[in-house]
Queue: 2 jobs
Job 1
Amino acid sequence: MTRKAFQDFYPDHLSHCYGCGRLNEKGLQIKTYWEDDNTTLTVFIPRPEHTAIPGFVYGGLIASLFDCHCTGTASAAAIRAAGLTPETAPAEPRFRFVTAALHVNYLRPTPLGIPLEVRGQVKELKARKVVVSATLSAGGQVCATCEAVTVQIPETFLAAAQ
C-alpha cells in the first residue's frame, strides 16, 4: 500500500495550489509526510526550469517549498492535536492552513538536479495559528532555513474556492 501525503487528504476545492495542489497539473505537487513523531519531510527534485543560474536552484522555488511544506505540517499538526489522523479527519477547512508570514534564510547556493529535503518541526500550536520552522538540505548540507507563521484558512478563501 502506498503511503499518502498530507496534501492527498485536502478536499478537492482546496487542492489547486501551485506548490502542493494534487489537482494542479502544472504545479510542483509536493508531498509531505511525518518522518517521525516530531519532524515532517518533503523530498523534491528541482527540474531545469527551476534554475537561477546554471547549476543552482532559483530562490523562489525554495520559498515555495517552504511555504507548502509548512502549511502541510500545520495541517497535520492540527489534525493530530484534534486526536485524528489524516485518514479519519473530516475534510473540513479548519484543518487547512495558509501562510501569514514566511521568513527564509538562504545560507548557501542550492544545487540543481539532486533531491532537496525539507524538514519541519512545529514550534507553536494554537487553535487558529501554527508556527513551523524548517530546513532545506541538498546532499546533506543545509542550504536554507525558514520560520513560517501559518493560520487557519480564512473564510474569504473558502467562499472563493466553492
Job 2
Amino acid sequence: MITHYHRDHYLYRKGEEIYYKDKVIFLKDPVRNINPSQKIRSYVLLNKMNVKNLARKVAIIDNREYVLENIKITGSPPVPHGKPRTKLGYVVMILINIDEYRILHASDVQGPISRKALDYIVRMKPNLLIISGPPTYMVGTKIEQKYVDKALHNLVEIANKLPINSTIILDHHFMRDRNYRVYLEKLRKNIDKDRKIKLLTAAEYMGYRIKQLEAYRRELWENDYAYINEKE
C-alpha cells in the first residue's frame, strides 16, 4: 500500500525497487489530486525505477474497492494531508475488511484536521483505527494552534462515534511530541467511558516499551544511541 509519496511512506532509494518485485501494489493515484513534488516522485518510482514492470500488479486505490480471497480492500477518496488546501497534497486512507472486522489505516491525516477525513472515518465504522495523530510538536513552526485544537476535537468526536469496544492506535506525528502524554490523557478523559474505546500508541498496542526515536533524534545522533541504552 502506498497512501502517498512522502518519503517516510514508501521505498524510494536506488536498489530498493527489488522489494516491489512480484508484489501487488495498491497506490495513490500518481496523476490526479496530487501536488507537483509527489507527482514527480511517483513518476520516478513507477518509471525510472521500473516498479510498474517489476510488480505483479499496480492498481490505483483512490475511491476504489478490490477483493483478494476473503479480504476486501477499499481506498478512500483523496483527503488533505492535514489541513484543508495544504500544499502537502493528498493522502488515501485504506480500509481492510476481513470477516466483517474493519481496520482503517488513516495515514498522515494529522488528527484528522480535515472534516472530509473525519466524516469518512466515522462512516466506515472501523473496529480498529490506526491514525496519524495531531501534529502537536509543530505548533509555532509549521502549523497554527487552531488546527491542532481542531484535530484534537475531531479525534474525540471520532472516538465517540466508532463502534463500542473499538481501538484507536494514535501514532506517527503525535509521537514526535515529547509531551504527548499530556494530550493523550486529555483525549482519554473526553471520550465517553460507556463506549469502552481503547486509545493507545502503537508500542502500547503491541506490548512494547515506548521509544520516541523521532522526538529524540538529535540526542540519539549526538550521543550514539546512548539515550536508548540508558532507558533499557
